[in-house]
UniProtKB/TrEMBL annotation:
GO terms for cellular component: endoplasmic reticulum; mitochondrial membrane. This is Protein SERAC1. It comes from Piliocolobus tephrosceles (Ugandan red Colobus). GO terms for biological process: phospholipid biosynthetic process. Gene3D superfamilies: alpha/beta hydrolase (3.40.50.1820), Leucine-rich Repeat Variant (1.25.10.10).
Length: 581
């Protein structure tokens, strides 16, 4: 082996031809300046000359050559070796950054140990047009997108964003702020323009557009990648704006023909840094973008709302099973699964000791206890009331949402490995409906065949009192469709329960049920036992009452708490044979 390596190095020294000025510049920790060469074959260009490379430089060039090998295994090993190297000089990292191809760059961004010096700063952004602003250009980008293939909600978001933008611009020119078209009171002075509000409307609309491939092409063609990058930098202190921008880039990355544009615009460098963030939400959004760009090691595609919590980097650890987390009403992919808040947690810095406090226990505790799992959390919009709906036309039933989620999860490769589903509240009803839907479709049979077990945290299998209190609390005067479907007299809920119970018994799914015993405050007016014990009883599996309220039933107080330890025990026992193989 050592003889072959020596031959490789010596052969490389003889074979490499470089611009001698480039080498000297790199030794001075500068950049490689690439000569512009005509593509006319008739012209004779010979700007390169042979140069001897010092022995300590050979490793860099050898790795670069291997990273461009036709053999995939060789390429991956070269990227891994690059990422694990921490003794190079600055100019050697910059040399790799200048000379590597997009696959290598993406691989380095998805390697946990990679030095950020591998990533060049994004190219300079184009100047804003005269008498324009980022808000105006964002509005123009949105207005330029096709109005075809739009559902009612995309039309709603687009209309709302454009009307808010128009009023904002008019107010700027008039020098005073008025009430926005959405009834939102703006500042009465004209000191600092509250453009973030308007930009959020535009971004939410563009998020919806970016779910359509042809609209992604328009976003790219109209300079959207650069404009979104400008906004990302401007709002570095506004995580919500940045997350919406990352959702758009993540959706665009689902289209492989746009990968070169995304790389050229500098987004890989930005996401490589975001991956190392202490903020779990930021890192997870970045991980989704880079996974969608990484066609070397990732076959799955992660659509909007599907987040891999573990592993977020390339890993040599074999992944043997999937654990999926599905939140409930008013929940989210991250906040639903945080540790139960306490006075101690507030005073501690969350990332200093994740065993003591975590903002997402599946990513920290479960990933550490079961590293052979792929852990996925999904997110979807839900509302308690039609008054609070983010889209008034969006009246999605459990059946509609289950089809949508099932399609996204299958695209993410769910069903290719053994699966345990973990759900809270209405999320459990979605899981039941998804599995019943999958059982009727031959192309989804893998999802059923690989489902090993389900954990239900306070799932209202037989309905909830929530809808019945609609007349007693202001924002439930017009309960949303989701809330109505949770009513105890809902025919759809009864049919779902009866069908799933028979189905689960036939498939011999392992089941664990938890249920709250304490009431939950809904707003400031009413205290409600959201899911009573009798409603949380699926009819199979253990039913364990826990002295917490509905919101905290899925939030363990600490890592050694019964709630987490019993969950961990169920996962290990249910997947025991699969994890051993």
């Amino acid at each position: 082996g050592s003889l072959f390596l020596t031959y490789e190095v010596l052969a490389l020294k003889k074979a490499v031809t470089l611009d001698t000025q480039v080498v000297e510049r790199e030794k001075m920790k500068s950049y490689i300046y690439v000569h512009t060469v005509s593509l006319d074959k008739g012209e004779n260009h010979d700007p390169f000359s042979t140069v001897d490379i010092e022995d300590h430089e050979c490793a860099v060039w050898l790795l670069l050559r291997k990273s461009k090998s036709d053999d995939k295994t060789t390429r991956l090993k070269a990227v891994q070796e690059m990422s694990e190297t921490h003794h190079w000089h600055d100019y050697q990292y910059r040399l790799i950054a200048q000379a590597c191809d997009p696959k290598t760059l993406i691989g380095l961004a998805r390697s946990k140990e990679s030095d950020l010096r591998f990533f060049l700063l994004p190219p300079p952004l184009p100047s804003l047009k005269e008498d324009s602003s980022t808000e105006e250009e964002l509005r123009q980008l949105l207005a330029s997108l096709p109005q075809t293939e739009l559902d009612e909600c995309i039309q709603y978001f687009t209309s709302l964003a454009l009307s808010e933008s128009s009023q904002s611009l008019a107010a700027q020119k008039g020098g005073l702020w008025c009430f926005g078209g959405n009834g939102l009171p703006y500042a009465e002075s004209f000191g600092e323009v509250p453009s973030a509000t308007v930009e959020m409307f535009c971004l939410e609309a563009i998020v919806k557009h970016s779910e359509i491939s042809t609209h992604c092409d328009k976003i790219e063609a109209n300079g959207g990648l650069q404009l979104l990058q400008r906004l990302y930098r401007l709002h570095k202190d506004c995580p919500k704006v940045q997350r919406n921008i990352m959702r758009i880039i993540g959706n665009m990355a689902l289209n492989e023909h746009l990968h070169s544009s995304i790389v050229r615009s500098g987004w890989v460098s930005i996401m490589a840094e975001a991956m190392k963030s202490d903020r779990i939400m930021e890192a997870s959004h970045a991980a989704r973008i880079l996974a969608n760009l990484d066609r070397e090691t990732v076959q799955e595609k992660y659509q909007d709302g599907v987040y891999v919590l573990h592993p977020q980097y390339r890993t040599s650890q074999p992944i043997k099973a999937d654990v999926l987390f599905i939140h409930g009403l008013m929940g989210a992919a991250f906040k639903t699964w945080r540790q139960q808040d306490s006075e101690q947690a507030v005073t501690e810095k969350p990332m200093e000791d994740e065993d003591r406090y975590t903002t997402c226990w599946p990513k920290t505790w479960l990933a550490k206890d079961c590293p052979a799992l792929r852990i996925i959390s999904v997110e979807y919009d839900t509302t308690l009331s039609d008054w609070r709906a983010r889209c008034p036309m969006e009246r999605k039933s459990i059946a509609f949402r289950s089809k949508e989620l099932l399609r996204k999860l299958r695209a993410a490769g769910v069903g290719d490995r053994p699966v345990v589903w973990i759900s809270h509240s209405m999320g459990g009803l979605l899981v039941k409906k998804m599995l019943l839907e999958a059982s009727k479709k031959p192309e989804m049979s893998a999802v059923i065949n690989n489902t090993r077990g389900i954990i239900f945290y306070s799932v209202p299998h037989h309905g909830s009192h929530l809808a019945e209190y609609s007349v007693n609390v202001r924002y439930l005067l017009f309960p949303s469709l989701e809330v109505k479907e949770l009513s105890k007299d809902s025919p759809a809920l009864k049919t779902l329960q009866d069908d799933f119970l028979e189905f689960a018994k036939d498939k011999n799914f392992q089941v664990l049920n938890f249920v709250e015993t304490l009431p939950t405050y809904i707003g400031s007016m009413i205290k409600l036992h959201v899911v009573p014990v009798e409603s949380a009883d699926l009819g199979i599996g253990d039913l364990i009452p826990v002295d917490v309220n509905h919101l905290n039933i899925c939030k363990p107080k600490k890592k050694d708490a019964f709630l987490y330890q019993r969950t961990l025990q169920f996962i290990r026992e249910t997947l025991a044979k699969d994890l051993e193989n």
